[in-house]
Amino acid sequence: MGFGIILPLLPYIAEKYQANPFQIGMLTASYSFFQLVASPIIGRLSDRYGRKKILIISQFGSAVGYLLLGIAGNLPLLFISRIVDGITGGNISIAQAYIADVTDKKNRAKGMGMIGAAFGLGFIFGQALGGEIFFRFGKDTPFIFAALIRFLLAGYIWKKSKTLV
């Protein structure tokens, strides 16, 4: 949901710091590029150190990225925020690995489908929340809300996921 919340707002925030169209495109792409690079690494780390630890770290990293985005006062800090979030945001692969770990073959497709559905719903409702609702309360509010969601999710994973090592 956090990605959906901030995605429609990035061009407006970047323009605030006189970003040209190429820079806005690079700002948007920087998250995905660093997620692409980091996802296999994060996946290997979760194999080695446990899904729970790496999921929590990735949630905190994304929260920090969202907070940086909310307090950014210049274009370079916007890029740093997207890079931090991209590096730690590659946790979909960890969630999929967890589902594969805890489901039998018969229920695995259902579990993977639920991840896909959650991602899709978060992307749909995130854009409505960020662009239409939270932005009305201030330009930083969507980013702070996205960070709060990530912090809460990290706490939930830490507290409730006893099966994750």
Task: Write a brief structural summary.
The chain has 165 residues and is mainly α.
Using the coordinates shown, work out and report the CATH topology.
Answer: Growth Hormone, Chain: A
Q: What percentage of residues falls in helices of 4 or more residues?
A: over 70%
Distance between the termini: 25 Å
- CATH homologous superfamily classification: MFS general substrate transporter like domains
List keywords for this structure.
single chain, 8 helices, Growth Hormone, Chain: A, globular, 82% helix, 165 residues
Describe the structure.
This protein is mostly helical. It has one domain (2-159): MFS general substrate transporter like domains (Growth Hormone, Chain: A, Up-down Bundle). Helix content is 82%, strand content 0%. It has eight helices and no strands. The chain has helices at 2-6, 10-16, 21-49, 51-71, 75-88, 92-102, 105-133, 141-160. Helix 3 runs antiparallel to helix 4 (51-71).
Topology, please?
Blueprint lengths: L1 H5 L3 H7 L4 H29 L1 H21 L3 H14 L3 H11 L2 H29 L7 H20 L5
Helix pairs in contact: 2-3, 3-4, 3-5, 3-6, 4-5, 4-8, 6-7
